[in-house]
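2024-03-11 09:14:02 DEBUG pipeline.ingest accepted 1 chain
2024-03-11 09:14:02 DEBUG pipeline.ingest length=442
2024-03-11 09:14:03 DEBUG pipeline.predict start
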Amino acid sequence: MSVIFQQARIINPLEHVDSTGTLKVDDNGIIEAVVYGSQTLAQSPGDRVIDLRGQILSPGLFDMHCHFREPGQEYKETLESGSNAAVAGGFTGVALMPNTKPVIDSPLGVAYIRHHATTLPIDIEVIGAMTVESKGEHLAPFGKFCSYGVTAVSDDGSAIQNSQIMRLAFEYASNFDLLIIQHCEERSLTMGGIMNEGLFSTQLGLKGIPDVSEAITLARDLLLMHYLEQHKLHDPLRRPRYHVAHISTKTALDLVRKAKQDGLKVTCEVTPHHFTLCDEDLFHAGMKGNYIMKPPLSSRENREALLEALADGTIDVIATDHAPHASHEKECPSDQAAFGITGLETSLALTITELVDKHIITISRAIELLSVNPRKIMRLKPLLFAPGEEANFTIIDPEAQWSLTSSSLKSKSTNTPFLNRSLKGRARGIFHKGQLLESDAL
């Protein structure tokens, strides 16, 4: 039985497509035909026809920064529950960070994730650790990672502090065209910190995290890239690629802008919570644990800089940094709360509510940030709406009005500051791996 998705707004920035159209998928999950405008497709007995007037068909959303906690902390999230949360949020693929227990610092860990992900409804990419146990002392086996299909490495949550180790990471990764993803944090400045350093941390009596700590590590890494390109790595095929995780400050954004102007292969991502909230929101929150994260919610000025960078193209990706924690790790004194929040189920809605609806970016740019660019940066197969291509897309209702409740969450954890917040825009479902998975909330 084929499925015909009729009169949808089909958007794919990669193909420069934004048009009303109808798409037919055969029973093997392959796109059989696509027509645009008022044209219709022939129907056969048994075909299912879904009218998508007012809905958007976009390439399947991809989140390049997630934590599913398995192995080691399955009480927070599992590969299965994380995948269910991804589907609910409209994602057909995610990339998992390696800071599990044990750390994914060898091909054995990669094989474990891939084996247990085979039956899941989404694609799961594995990001390998940059150093053994993410301690920043000895490089992980990048070459072996590459042979297992790993395309990126990171010590997320624990930036490499030793500049010589970081230099070696750049040189080693460039041999295999591996992307380096850096959590930029100068830990001598942030140790013991809970929230952004400033007026609100002072009023709450919480140790602050100075926002310059992000820029200091980023500046060092960019200087190393400049040095290596000028003196060591003359082969254009061995140029280091660098991605800034969850960027949060104006100073860091200015460094990225300059690096791009200088021709360095640098990209960056922002999270929905950083472009939506600031430290003032934490100050006024009742239960503050769900507002504690790294990098911390920054100042209103830094938040405005993030919005400007989304609009001018400096930021390449919206990623969730989906970080589930159990209730006892959040419902506690602020200085004892675990860092991080869930994000897969609210990312699309916050993007539409806070960015598209407020005319900061277009819906086409939103899809570029949520789907096209992360796949491109991760060196994954591009998604096309063309006959013969595997169907991999997200169905979006851009006008859906809803609010998130703890009972509706598919994630195993409920640590989000967006519970009961009014939101606009929602995934109606995904089509991937030959099956249509529809949201039970729509």
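2024-03-11 09:14:41 DEBUG pipeline.report The chain has a mean pLDDT of 95.
2024-03-11 09:14:41 DEBUG pipeline.predict end
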